[in-house]
Amino acid sequence: MASQKDPGVTVVDHPLVQHKLTLMRDKERSTKSFRQLLNEIGMLLCYEVTRDLPITMTEIETPLQKMQAPIIAGKKLVFAPILRAGVGFLDGMLEMVPAARVAHIGLYRDPETLQAVEYYFKAPSDIADRMVIVMDPMLATANSAIAAVDRLKERGAKDLRFVCLLAAPEGIAKMRDAHPEVRIWTASIDSHLNDHGYIVPGLGDAGDRMFGTK
Ligand code: PRP
Ligand code: URA
């Protein structure tokens, strides 16, 4: 039986995204170039994840006449990067949406248990009234993404989306199960997780490659 495509998961197959992702996967890519590419892909993914934002009409006056013109409805977005690697997307996203608010979520993955451990959380107080876009380059076991969304929901967030660069099938299934209403955007769904919870073929440790900490 043909497998049903999940409408909650969008693979961004734009050639620019795919090309840049291929460059990033290359183990010889420099820290500087890796960071630059992640920033550029952040802009392109921002375009996709915001594609269906609600629009309202407003009256403006051009030099020639009055007109009704579209603007984005509702309160400003919240971008929620999962530290550290999620920060790599943030500048690119903020270039596209400069007025967005930012929620920082500090989580690291315990290397033995692969459970997410929180070390920092700071979010806008009116997060309940805003769309929140959670970002992290890697969705591996999904423990970090699930913990981040749990925490944002605890704080009142109701309208959430998740954007990543690479996802493992195992992580997507777990995230969809834990938070079925949170749609996912990714540039690729890779083959599987290895015994250490790394995405294969993947690109290695995103945080280490971005900050040169290996
Ligand atoms: C990486 C990555 C995600 C997480 C994904 O972060 O940036 O946050 O692992 O794995 P998961 O889906 O199995 O939870 P890491 O814990 O290495 O922290 P870092 O970004 O500070 O390097
Ligand atoms: N975190 C990473 O940075 N890379 C992986 O492949 C899995 C988790």
Would you kindly provide a written description of the structure presented here, covering whatever features stand out?
This protein is of the alpha/beta class and 214 residues long. It has a single domain (9-52, 77-205), classed as Rossmann fold (3-Layer(aba) Sandwich). Helices cover 32% and strands 29% of the residues. It contains 6 helices and 15 strands. The chain has helices at 15-25, 31-49, 87-96, 143-154, 169-178, 206-211; strands at residues 9-11, 55-61, 66-72, 78-83, 101-102, 104-109, 116-122, 131-135, 138-139, 159-163, 166-167, 183-186, 188-189, 192-193, 199-200. The strands form 4 sheets. Strands 1, 4, 5, 6, 7, 8, 10 and 12 form an 8-stranded mixed beta sheet that branches. A 3-stranded parallel beta sheet has the order 9-11-13. Strand 2 and strand 3 form a beta hairpin. Helix 1 (15-25) runs antiparallel to helix 2. The longest helix is centred in the N-terminal third of the chain and has 19 residues, at 31-49. The protein is globular and about 65 Å long. The mean pLDDT is 96. The structure holds 1-O-pyrophosphono-5-O-phosphono-alpha-D-ribofuranose and uracil. Residues 138, 140, 197-199, 202, 205-207 line the site of uracil.
